[in-house]
Amino acid sequence: MLEAFAHLLTSSAFFVMAAGVLVGIAVGILPGITTGMMMALVLPFTYGMSSTDAVVLLIGIYVGGVSGGLVTATLMRMPGEPNAIMTCLDGYPLAKAGHPGRALGLGNAGSIVGGAISWVALVLIAQPLSRVAIVFGPWEQFALVCAALVMIVSLSGKSLLKGLIAAMLGMLLAMPGIDPSSGLQRLTFGAGWLTAGLDILPVMIGMFALSQIIADTLHLETNQAVIRSSMRGILISLHDYVRHGRNMLRSSLIGIGIGILPGVGASVSSIVAYTTAKKVSKEPEKFGKGSEEAIVAAESANNATTGGTLIPVLTLGIPGGLADAVLLSALILHNLQPGPMLYVRSPEIVNTILATHLVAHVMMFSLMTVGVLLFARLMTISRAWIFPAVLVICVVSTFALNNRPADIWVMLAFGVVGYALEYVKAPLAPLLIGFLLAPLAEAQLRTGLMASGGDFLAIFDRPIAVAFLLVGIAMLAWPPVAAAIRRHRQEQPLAGS
């Protein structure tokens, strides 16, 4: 770990991390561009980097992007990132009341505290969990992937069916290519370029970057009034940290716990932390009207989620959301196998991720404190200038992968597919995660079947695998059961009257 911190202090690594945090903050502020989208666009540029510098850059973007949404949420009442929605409710009213610096300062303070606490949890929990996961056999790995997919589907949106269809579509898209067992081509339809299967990069850029450009181009929003930012109140006193300390700790723990769950993410953690803070607050009537407690709770949970989501990526090789899926893809592209063996084969990568997570939060806090006036100017840039540049990057990045035009057509096709799925309110994250995890699930299933002589029932001889399957079944059954319970409760008063 000390070597990893020392590496971050070298000129090249420090510059890469600073660039990543700056880009992440800018992306969090600019409307129409998400952190996961920018990480996907940057991914091709990491090919020429070392593995350590690649993860430093991506973690920097991740941390900066989660925090950057605070600025637009506070000064424009428009979340630059989905996880900043709850910050809008109180950050904008407090800024509108004449305290924009105070609102930004409280959010910035919550961000650094949440990030620091989540780093402690990441260091303490990840390695012991990897030691447990390393003894998993193929049946346990298969059951774990199934449970993760079901959990992502059941918690990713209002419609369980749409999420399930998206995940299964993602798994289907991973099937074309060479069958890993027989060596025969499957689902290539005579297309030679499909022999190697669909590459993750064109699919990812099309689904998330290009689809977002299409959606925002068709629905350009009118300019909103921007509150002038001010440095006054941006620095929070020690008394404020003490006064809001319990709220920061509670919200950070909520963010860590929810971040560990696959497919949930910072948006849900900020909502849970916000509502929890309101329930225990002595002044709940101020929530939604400029409450300092609300801003601290939302931003602490947002940044604490970054550490929580990295735990399943490092220990189990399972991404919790889009940004984690991009990081997982980066590790695979650099010939690193995410999961418990990463600690054994590439401990320097794990330590680099852990060190970067903490140092990037410190850098984010410093940059947000001294550069808030400069960052606020980014909100005035029209998306009519941003989108053409992003589109060019999409095409160049996709073509540079294999130097073949077919990848560009794949990207364009999935851009349309992504827009269509979002138009019908189908979640995109389950599709991408299904695409990433399907090969792993297939490989583990076939390994288990070969070891058991083709007997699938052998999985029931493995208690841990059975436990994971039961968790998956419970998560799949819970949404309709919960809906039935709500309907029953609503009908009871009517029956009584």
Automatic annotation (TrEMBL):
Annotated ranges, domain DUF112: 15-432
Keyword Membrane: yes
TM region positions: 12-34, 54-76, 103-126, 132-153, 160-178, 190-210, 253-274, 310-333, 354-376, 382-401, 408-426, 464-485
Keyword set includes Transmembrane: yes
Keywords in alphabetical order: Membrane, Transmembrane, Transmembrane helix
Record-linked Pfam families: TctA
InterPro entries cross-referenced by the UniProt entry: DUF112_TM
Superkingdom of this protein's organism: Bacteria
The protein's name in its UniProt record: Tricarboxylic transport membrane protein
